């Protein structure tokens, strides 16, 4: 060993050999540099995106430590990391809004890919984004935040973790994974201008009319009753009101000074049976003069149409999905010869249910159109409906110029037959009384 002593990772041990260096029995404390919280977060996000699990764990550990105990020095340690991560999440959200994403869209994909706990963390980031906006925002934006329970609670990250029953380490890991997801999301169709934006489609929010309030009440009764005949009556009446209301709105908008333009909504199509759910969206959309595009990788279908029609699609799809699922579960119990249902059976059942429901809804819409044409006159209604269809199609071609059609395969005959029979029993729209005038017609 050299007379200067052996070198260690923290200095020198042993006896110094010059008069300027007295005996050193322990290393001096290393100088504490300020924490570069942003660099730690960037490294952790890159590691999470990579394939090296051990490297990701090391980077996350560094992020948890945050350069040292909180309160030591002027850098704030972990507190600086927490604040920087929150700021990075808010900045990532702000970049998504001009790219077509809305709060409910982001919440849906975060929950779908990362789970419910990160979804709750996202609500805090959404609230912080909202608090950082000095100017007014559209009412529909605040409505979405309210539905997600996105209430701003200040900068108390530790308090947030405690409220959610989550320790800081778990919260940091969730935050890093969410940041990696948000920064990698692709642009989507801009359905409404975001806060601070301009242009885009208007009027794409659900209608608050009394007619649709009655429809909501009828569908709620249809879903809650245990008697199939009663559910059929409630749902059939709801469809009748929807069809007549849509046609009445078309006539009113035709003479309005500032008529509505086609807008859009997004409807989740999560697993299992995402393809069957997307088919149900498409069938309901087509029957209500809307267009639908399924983004399988993102887990939603985009529906384009006029406001009253979009509200009808959203309400009917929600109710029909509940009814289809219940019918499928009943079919499992009633299967010929007993036994456990297979995935192929379930998919075939839901595909058949969606296709048959679509046929019946389209027939109901055509019947309502014939009645409305007779009441209003063909020269008045038919050009209006044609112009609205052209406007929706033009919007579709603008937002989705590369959309293609895909074929869904069905592999279980029994499931298809059972699903078709269940859709027939739903009796959604075929019982509307004939020759009944449109609401409000004199």
From TrEMBL:
Residues 1-10, 421-434 have a biased composition (Low complexity). Residues 14-35 have a biased composition (Basic and acidic residues). Transmembrane segments: none annotated. Residues 1-36, 419-442 are annotated as: Disordered. InterPro entries: DUF2786 (IPR024498), DUF7168 (IPR055592). Pfam families: DUF2786 (PF10979), DUF7168 (PF23771). This is Uncharacterized protein. It comes from Micromonospora rifamycinica.
């Amino acid at each position: 060993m050299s007379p200067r002593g052996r070198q260690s990772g923290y200095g020198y041990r042993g006896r110094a050999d010059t008069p300027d260096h007295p005996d050193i029995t322990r290393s001096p404390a290393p100088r504490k540099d300020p924490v570069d919280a942003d660099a730690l977060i960037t490294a952790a996000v890159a590691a999470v995106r990579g394939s090296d699990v051990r490297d990701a764990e090391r980077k996350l550990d560094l992020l948890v430590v945050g350069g040292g105990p909180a309160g030591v020095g002027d850098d704030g340690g972990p507190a600086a990391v927490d604040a920087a991560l929150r700021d990075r999440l808010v900045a990532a959200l702000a970049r998504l809004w001009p790219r077509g994403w809305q709060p409910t869209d982001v919440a849906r994909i975060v929950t779908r890919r990362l789970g419910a706990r990160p979804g709750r963390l996202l609500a805090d980031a959404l609230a912080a984004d909202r608090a950082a906006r000095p100017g007014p925002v559209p009412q529909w934006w605040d409505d979405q935040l309210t539905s997600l329970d996105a209430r701003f609670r200040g900068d108390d990250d530790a308090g947030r973790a405690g409220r959610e029953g989550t320790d800081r380490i778990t919260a940091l890991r969730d935050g890093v994974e969410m940041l990696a997801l948000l920064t990698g999301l692709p642009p989507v169709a801009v359905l409404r201008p975001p806060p601070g934006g301009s242009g885009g489609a208007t009027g794409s929010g659900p209608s608050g009319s009394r007619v649709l309030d009655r429809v909501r009440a009828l569908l709620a009764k249809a879903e809650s009753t245990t008697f199939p005949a009663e559910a059929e009556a409630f749902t059939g009446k709801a469809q009748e009101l929807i069809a007549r209301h849509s046609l009445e709105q078309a006539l009113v908008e035709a003479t309005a000074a500032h008529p509505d333009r086609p807008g859009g909504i997004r409807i989740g199509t999560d697993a299992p049976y995402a393809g069957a759910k997307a088919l149900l969206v498409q069938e309901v959309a087509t029957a209500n003069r809307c267009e639908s595009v399924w983004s399988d990788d993102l887990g939603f279908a985009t529906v384009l149409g006029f406001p009253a029609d979009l509200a009808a699609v959203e309400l009917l799809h929600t109710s029909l999905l509940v009814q289809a699922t219940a019918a499928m579960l009943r079919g499992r119990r009633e299967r010929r010869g007993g036994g456990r249902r297979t995935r192929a059976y379930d998919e075939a059942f839901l595909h058949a249910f969606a296709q048959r429901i679509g046929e019946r809804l389209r027939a109901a819409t055509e019947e309502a159109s014939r009645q409305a044409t007779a009441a209003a006159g063909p020269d008045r209604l038919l050009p209006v409906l044609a112009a609205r269809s052209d406007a929706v199609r033009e919007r579709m071609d603008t937002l989705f110029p590369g959309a293609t059609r895909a074929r869904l395969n069905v592999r279980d005959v029994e499931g298809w037959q059972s699903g078709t029979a269940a859709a027939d029993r739903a009796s959604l729209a075929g019982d509307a009384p004939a020759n009944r005038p449109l609401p409000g017609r004199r």
